[in-house]
Amino acid sequence: MAIGSVFNSGVEGFNRASQGIERASAEINRATIEEQDDTQLAQQRQLTAASPDEAVTAPVSQPARVDEALVNLKVEEFNAKANTQSIQTADEVLGTLVDIKV
User: Fold this and answer.
1) Cα torsion for 8, 10, 16, 17, to the nearest 10°?
2) Annotated region Disordered: where (predicted)?
3) Average pLDDT in the 1-22 region?
4) From residue 27, how far is each of 16, 24, 56, 59, 81 by CA, in Å?
5) Over the stretch 61-92, which tens digit does the pLDDT of each residue have?
6) In a 3-state reduction of DSSP, which class is residue 63?
7) Whether the Cβ atoms of residue 17 and residue 84 lie closer than 8 Å to each other
8) If we measure between CA atoms, which residue out of 27, 33, 19, 11 comes closest to residue 82?
């Protein structure tokens, strides 16, 4: 396998990991905002409730997937580190080859 292809694969993998980190971060942010909105909505319903039953009822929504987004964030971190190591190794090998030829 040519050193250039290893280097290119490392760069492509790092770019994919960066995009995955951005997606996971956006998902965590979205879940946090939704959680805040749900809390505010529940407080508003509690303040404007006509009966005691309505004051206790929380809004029905799908639970936020923060846990899954955090796992994805950690996985992408490992992917980025692995691809960074591939890039560094390809760079070292190329440097060694250049030193041998000169």
Assistant:
1) -160
2) 35-62
3) 90
4) 17, 5, 28, 21, 21
5) 555 578 899 999 999 999 999 999 999 999 99
6) coil
7) no
8) 11
